[in-house]
Amino acid sequence: MTDSAPRSDPASSSEPSEPAPSPGPVTGRGEGLGVFDKALLDRCISCGFCLPACPTYALTRQEPSSPRGRITLMRALESGDLTPDDPTLAEESSFCLGCRACEPVCPAGVEYGQLLEQWRDHQWQGRGRPLIARLLMAAVSRPWLLRLQGLVRRHARERRPASGERKRERPVSLMLGCAERGLYPSVSRAVRELRPEVAVPAGQGCCGALHAHNGDSAAGAGMARALGERLPGTVVTTSGGCAAHLAHHLGRDRVRELSEYLEATGHRPSGRVTVGGRRARVALQDSCHLRNGLGVTRPPRELVAAVAEYVELPGAGDCCGAAGTYAMLRPEDSRAVLAPKLEALRKLDVDYVVAVNPGCLRQLRQGLRRTRSRTKAVHLAELLAMAARSEPGAGPGTEPGPGTDAGPAAG
């Protein structure tokens, strides 16, 4: 499958097309192909509440590029009314960000994320899977490659327990994200700085989210279970996308995103982040899967507000366009999704924007750099560690000039 050209901006068209009501479940021929879980597919009532929440529908105003329209395509595939090699099926399975913004607004409780995984499991087989996705999936499937990143980039490592140190009754393990340990090793180091009791077991592999979102959900589930066996106790992750994937397979009681864990353990942020002697103005970009999949929005905001002047970013819950491999598979569409967010940040003129997912962090940094913004993108763990270091006797101060490359987020 080849990547398509970027979609046209609906504002450039004199008469944007109005969405036509989608038909109900397709009756089709026979029992269906068995691509989708019928109970999940039939749950959609074609009401259209999902349309305003969908970022790709916002770009095109075309029904097939909405969750309702895509479910209609899924039904047509399942019934045999569309053949598996239909170009619209290939295009729309790729164009979807998988942000799951449609799920919280759906009155019927459609689990669109699972349907999308099933769709790509069928659609993205063999050469139907984008080459970049195949290469990335092959890379993260090799634990020795992930460990090599740590040797070079110095992510957090397990410390040797002191003599006589008591073993924790309920161990807590930090999951090292595949991309994060190589691109942003300072994030895991910041977590250990904030909470030294969190263990960092060696030999961690990938959690499998990359596979699940790119057409191999069976492998993704197996990788999640394998990682769960290697990480004892509560699993803490600094990636919203990984948190949602692991929680689905290991159970919600075992998995905590960093802000959740800090809140649950009564962590009280210390110090403050300042710029030019004043309290820094800081916005936050939600992780789509953390927000839409796990419903976590309040804890990261309260942590930011404890150490800086929190400023709500308009559209903070809207996808930034990173969406795992999406920014690499469809870079032009990814930038189009990001553009309104960059404009909102320009108007806010904040010092920092906080991310709770490494993909979002990469997307924001690249976009801010491209637009020559003075705003810096940092991970939540980095911001809290910056604040803690400002306390007397806590070590060297950290008050980098916003908009520069040399700062806490440089990794």
TrEMBL record:
<keyword id="KW-0004">4Fe-4S</keyword>
<dbReference type="GO" id="GO:0046872">
    <property type="term" value="F:metal ion binding"/>
</dbReference>
<dbReference type="Pfam" id="PF13183">
    <property type="entry name" value="Fer4_8"/>
</dbReference>
<dbReference type="Pfam" id="PF02754">
    <property type="entry name" value="CCG"/>
</dbReference>
<keyword id="KW-0411">Iron-sulfur</keyword>
<feature type="compositionally biased region" description="Low complexity">
    <location>
        <begin position="401"/>
        <end position="411"/>
    </location>
</feature>
<feature type="domain" description="4Fe-4S ferredoxin-type">
    <location>
        <begin position="32"/>
        <end position="64"/>
    </location>
</feature>
<keyword id="KW-0249">Electron transport</keyword>
<dbReference type="InterPro" id="IPR017896">
    <property type="entry name" value="4Fe4S_Fe-S-bd"/>
</dbReference>
<feature type="region of interest" description="Disordered">
    <location>
        <begin position="389"/>
        <end position="411"/>
    </location>
</feature>
<keyword id="KW-0813">Transport</keyword>
<dbReference type="InterPro" id="IPR017900">
    <property type="entry name" value="4Fe4S_Fe_S_CS"/>
</dbReference>
<dbReference type="InterPro" id="IPR009051">
    <property type="entry name" value="Helical_ferredxn"/>
</dbReference>
<feature type="compositionally biased region" description="Low complexity">
    <location>
        <begin position="1"/>
        <end position="17"/>
    </location>
</feature>
<keyword id="KW-0479">Metal-binding</keyword>
<comment type="function">
    <text>Component of a complex that catalyzes the oxidation of glycolate to glyoxylate.</text>
</comment>
<feature type="region of interest" description="Disordered">
    <location>
        <begin position="1"/>
        <end position="30"/>
    </location>
</feature>
<protein>
    <recommendedName>
        <fullName>Glycolate oxidase iron-sulfur subunit</fullName>
        <ecNumber>1.1.99.14</ecNumber>
    </recommendedName>
</protein>
<dbReference type="GO" id="GO:0051539">
    <property type="term" value="F:4 iron, 4 sulfur cluster binding"/>
</dbReference>
<feature type="domain" description="4Fe-4S ferredoxin-type">
    <location>
        <begin position="85"/>
        <end position="110"/>
    </location>
</feature>
<keyword id="KW-0408">Iron</keyword>
<dbReference type="InterPro" id="IPR012257">
    <property type="entry name" value="Glc_ox_4Fe-4S"/>
</dbReference>
<dbReference type="GO" id="GO:0019154">
    <property type="term" value="F:glycolate dehydrogenase activity"/>
</dbReference>
<dbReference type="InterPro" id="IPR004017">
    <property type="entry name" value="Cys_rich_dom"/>
</dbReference>
<keyword id="KW-0677">Repeat</keyword>
